[in-house]
Every structure is written in C-alpha cells, then in structure tokens.
Design brief:
homodimer; 403 residues; alpha+beta; nine-stranded mixed sheet; seven-stranded mixed sheet; 25 strands; 32% strand; globular
C-alpha cells in the first residue's frame, strides 16, 4: 500500500475557479485514494469589507485584485470562489468519491488591528426568499451584515458588528451595480451608512461548513456554481462540516474535486440568500470507491450526494435532481425559474426510499412506513436556483446493521 | 388566589368529538386559569387491530362500538378522535391560551395477553405523499403497519409487529370501503394477509406527542379536524410532547380546548399520511392570558400557534394561515386542492420575522439576517390538507433576554 500523503493547497489567484465547475480545468494536483489534502478557501463576499477580510492577506489580495486595467480572477456564470480542482488518480464515471472532513478552521483576519478574530458577511440579496416581501420600506432593499467570529475557535458563537443597506457601487472597471449582483465588487465604505450595535447581545451558534463542495459534472462546461446537482456543488447543508463525510457520484475522469463557499454559520433554508460567508480552511481525506467494487456495498447504485455524520445519514433532494439534463439545453437559466420546495420534497422522498431499500434491505412498504415515523425532512435552501430538501435518518435506528 | 384544581377526563363515547372542532359544543368542564387537567385520548386507528387497541378497554370499546344498528360516536368531516372540549373560565376572543404539557403516557393495552405493552398503527393511506409514486406494483396500495410500544416507557423505542395491505372492508352498516377512507372501520383480520418480521431489528425512537391540540375556531361550524389552522388543531409537530408549551390565539368564548390524534412517534413531513397512531394520556396546565394584559409582553400580537420547548421556540407556517377565511366559502374542500410547501415556507418566514421583531425587539433587517444564519426551517407535514413548515430558533441565541 502506498504511503499516505498530505497535500496543501494555498488559496490564490492561481488555485481558484470563480463561479463555476468545469470538466476541462487542469487539476492543481493529482492525489491517490486515501491521501489527505488541506485546502484554503475564500468567501466571495470578502470585498464587502476588504479591511476585515482581504487586507494583509496575500492569498485574498491576489484573488480580489481588481484595478481599472486588471482583474486577477475572472468570475464566470455563478458566484462562488472554489479552490481546486483536485484530481483523484484512477477516478472514472460510475465511481464514488468519499470526502471525509477531518478539520475546518476559520481564516484569521490578517489586519493587525483585529488579531485573533475572523470576519464574515451575510448578504440579504435580491435572490433571497424575503426579497420584496417585507413590512418596512423600501421592500426591495439589499442589506449586508458583517459578523465577527473567534478565529481561535474558543468561542462557539458569532456576533454582528454592523450592517448597511446596499447603495449603488461602481466597480474598478467603471460599471455601476445598483444591486449586489456581482460577487467581488469592492464596497466603497465612504458611500454606505454603517449601523453599529445591530443584533446586540445576540450569539449566533457557530456551524463552520462548506456551502460548495463536489466534483465536476460531465453534462455541460462550464457549469454555474449556484445550483446544486447530483455531483454535489452548492448543497448548502450546514452539517457538511468537521466530522462529516460526503459521498459523490463521479461524473468525469479524475473526479475533479473542488471546494468553496465557506460558511461560519447558516440556518436551514438560507433564507436571505447567504450564510455568514467566512473564509475557512479544510482538511479532507479523499477515498475513491471504484465502480467494480460497489456491488454488495451500501454505496452500490448511489446516484445522489449522500452525507454521513457520526449519528445520522442525509439524502439531498433537489427540485431537479439532474437539472442539466432534466431541463434541456436552457437548463442553466431555466433552473432559476422552475424551482419549488414541493419538487425537492418529492425527490427527497424518492432518495430516502432508495437509501433505505438499498442500504438497509427494506421492502418498499417497510421503507415508506419507517420514513413516515422516523425520518425528518428539512428545507436545506430556497435560494440556489435548484431548491433543496434533505431527509435525515438516525443510525441508531439500525442497531444491528452498518453503523 | 384560587386553589389549583386537577381535573380528570376519561375518554368515552360521552367525552369525544370525532373528526371536527366546533364552537357550539358544550364543554365537558369549565376550568380556571392555572388548573391542571389530565385527558385521555384515543387514536382513530385503533380498529386497525381491535384485539390490541380496543378489546377490554371500556373507554375505547364505548367509542368504537359499531353494530349493524348502532354506531356510538358519529364521525363528522375529518378524521381524529378529540377529547373535549374544556372551557377556560373568562376566555374570550383576543386572549391567548397557554397549554403546558406536563406529562404524556401511553395507554396500556387492556388485553391480558399483552400486559405492559401498548400498540399503535401506521397507515400509509391514499392521502399520503407517496401514494401512486412507488417503484413496486400496485402503485396505488394502502398499507398498515402495527407497532409495539413499551407501555411502561422504560424502552425508548418502538418496533414493528406486522404489516398488511388494505383489502376492501365492509363496515357494520354494510358499506364496503375499497380505500381506508373512514377512520374507525373495524378491520376483519380474516380478510387480510399479515406479514410478520417486518422492519426486523429496527428501533424507532419514541416521540410521544399529540397530533391534534387546539381551540375551536369562530369562522365556521363544524370545522374538520384535518387541516391545521391559526387556532392550532392538527399541527402534527412531534415536538408537541412532554415538557413543551403551546400558545394559541383564542377565537371563541371559553376557548374550547380539545386534544386528540395521539402519536407514539412521527417524522417531520409525516410522509405516508400518519404517524405511529397510539392512544395516549396527557396532563396539561392551562393558563389564560387576557388580551388586556398582553401589551408589553412577548405574547402581544401573537396571531398563530407558537411552540416553546426547554431550548427552542417554533413558529408554525401553513399554506393558508387562516384557511377558513383565506379560501372563502368552499375553504373546507378547497384546502385539499391548493396546498404547497412553498406557500407554507412563505408563511413560516413571515411568522418567524414577526416573532423576532416583536418578542426580541429586532429591526426587520436584523430579523432577516438572523433567521438566515440561525433559524432552521423544517417540513412539519405534507398530508393534512393545509401543509406545514415550522421555523426553529434556539433560546440561547438571546442570552440576556427572555429565557
């Protein structure tokens, strides 16, 4: 057996792809199944307050560098800064990639004025579920709230620092953005009104996780980072953090694993459009399960992203489980018009039934009864184009089986 | 101050109303605010196996008695056997009724062959989310699974005993029911094929709670017990058990509190149409909050059913929050055609925003950010006509406020 290696991928303009997955990206590194890899990630909201989230951080500065003549990293289609891809040696379509999240740590603020702290941004944007449905005027307003996180991770809660309402921002190329429709715009703090003391004394429980994690899909190129897919991506389940394991169907040779959209905390639904978007570093163990070895194992016939935590399993349902093929040639725009929680619930039901029948050898009648009396269905997100419902089943329900 | 009294309501054909709430029912008892009341409840599915859930139990036998010439209790409109109503002295529209659930215990099987056990039935019915969407044939099948619960409550899990597929059943009046569309039909066990050994070795965690609990609505009479409403009713949140407190807007004089639809366990969504339907007895403390005393308290302006547990608050969103008025004269039939989780999510968002703004004194911008990063939205049920989404917020988020 080969020795286990531990790779390190620092984040920089050379190691990210912004806004998309692509089957044709050259891998940063090729790893063996079983290797460890530590990957730095950056939140695409860092320029909401560059003093707190970019300045003095060479990796962030290289990614966010944007002058009148040069933007170091071009964003394409979607929103999220993804670090990668990492190729897994020998991976091919039909295999399963297991990703064990061994550690997740906040990226400390590099500004010496804020030592020991980390910061994140929550953007209540025009794509949020609340947008236009408010009691206060103007109903169509966008709001950014900056949160402080303890970079030493001793404190398990975050607190708000200030918020502001979005005002038109002119980017370094001279384009004015009336809406915050372009992640990475450097917010000019001379043009905004900061409200300090917001959410006073409120402690937001910390749930560090990666909103986007997954492998490159084969069906189109490039593919927006926003809608989640059977290959993972922007699932936005806050349980995809330290101690969790994800299983993804491999769609292209090498799998092409990427990770981004780091969150310090999020609630189920991600209602306003974002979480506490906060740069994080993760350490992952990547294990390849070859198609030929799957029959007879719980991973046989797995055709959706599966999450395992110490106590539970989760299947992820989407409005359109394979939207790139479900919605035809216009899939990447159509998905933003067609989603519903009802459809995602339908998909989550089918996937939980499949999980119980295939991994626990239940009949369909048994699976349907069990999921009615013992599985919990939650709303993962309603803001990523392809909306999500997850179904949860506890492992201790099956004391004599696979644990 | 008056002495606290403890009332006891045994379940019988004289103390239940089956399938509906009604503003014109005579109360069984009138209690003072602060009184305790212990209430026995029966599951409407008990006749799925009368040997296990009816026989030898005088209360159940009186409720389920049905011969060729006499049915002791007429079901109306809906499904659930409700015990009550209990009037609260001085209650009037605009008040809030607080219901603290002090204890919940299973109703022991009265058949001496099964001492120490209790039983429940899970019915996967034609109103279930799965119905018609199955991988096995026939796609339109109904299945009942009988579960055993430990009546001494020492064991915190239930296990399946057997299941069977529904076959046409002829009721004592001679009507044949091809579908299980009439709760209370005595199933003739000579006509069914029991499958023993189903869900072998599986332990379903126990979550005893009341599916239906609430006060009578003013807007119509009678009102089906199936769709939940702003006055509570069939909310089907499995957290409405021991240690929980519910707050209901009072709609009619006396409030007219009733409880039924007891469940030994249920998952969020109640996917197949029912839980483990299992007779239970609850002890409640009823506290009346008069309208005039509400201003300045967290209950001011509460216009929806609110759940408080030791660690969390829950608001309950519905597809139509006041469906009897939202949907006009045909509301009681229209509600079964119009529900969606998307609408219930919309309502849950508005209610959680209201809760945070009114009870925690947040601005709307603060409330929207906080619920995005710290509130979890789950699917309560998709089988009760008026579908439900609940939103959860943890109390320890507000360390310096109301605990």
């Amino acid at each position: 057996m080969a020795e286990q290696r531990h790779h390190y991928i620092a984040v920089s303009d050379k190691t990210v792809h912004w806004g998309y997955f692509s089957r044709s990206l050259a891998p940063l590194v090729e790893v063996e199944s079983g290797d460890l890899v530590t990957i730095e990630t950056l939140t695409h909201q860092a320029n909401d307050d560059a003093e707190l989230m970019v300045r003095g951080d060479p990796g962030a500065e290289s990614v966010f560098h944007w002058s009148a003549t040069k933007k170091n990293v071009d964003r394409r289609i979607g929103a999220h800064i993804c670090t990668g891809p990492v190729a897994i040696k020998g991976a091919a379509p039909g295999d399963i990639l297991e990703v064990r999240i061994l550690d997740v740590t906040p990226r400390p603020c590099a500004n010496p004025l804020h030592q020991g702290k980390a910061f994140g941004s929550n953007a209540a944007g025009s794509w949020g579920f609340h947008y236009g449905d408010t009691v206060e005027e103007p109903k169509e307003r966008e709001v950014i709230t900056i949160y402080e996180v303890d970079a030493t991770a001793e404190r398990n809660w975050a607190r708000a620092v200030y918020n502001f309402r979005w005002t038109p921002q002119t980017d370094p190329f001279g384009v004015t953005h009336a809406l915050m429709n372009y992640p990475g715009i450097p917010v000019d703090h001379a043009t905004i009104k900061k409200n300090h003391g917001v959410l006073k004394d409120i402690r937001v429980p910390i749930r560090p996780h990666f909103g986007v994690m997954g492998v490159a899909p084969a069906e189109a190129d490039p593919v927006s980072s926003v809608p989640p897919n059977y290959t993972g991506g922007n699932i936005d389940n806050w349980r995809i953090g330290k101690g969790a394991t994800m299983y993804y169907p491999v769609s292209v040779d090498g799998a092409l694993f990427s990770v981004g959209d780091p969150h310090a905390s999020q609630g189920d639904a991600e209602l306003c459009g974002t979480a506490i978007e906060c740069s994080l570093t993760g350490t992952f163990k990547l294990v390849l399960h070859k198609k030929a070895d799957l029959p007879g194992t719980p991973l046989a016939d797995l055709h959706y992203p599966l999450l395992e935590t110490p106590d539970e399993w989760f299947v992820h349902g989407f409005s359109y489980p394979r939207y790139l093929t479900d919605l035809g040639a216009d899939a990447q725009s159509a998905i933003f018009e067609k989603s519903s929680i009802d459809l995602a619930m339908r998909d989550a039901y089918r996937k939980m039934r499949h999980f119980l029948m295939t991994t626990q050898n239940l009949t369909e009648d048994e699976a349907i009864s069990l999921m009615s009396v013992a599985a919990d269905f939650g709303i993962t997100q309603v803001v990523d184009g392809n909306w999500g419902v997850h179904a949860i089943i506890k492992k201790n329900i099956f004391p004599s089986r696979r644990g």
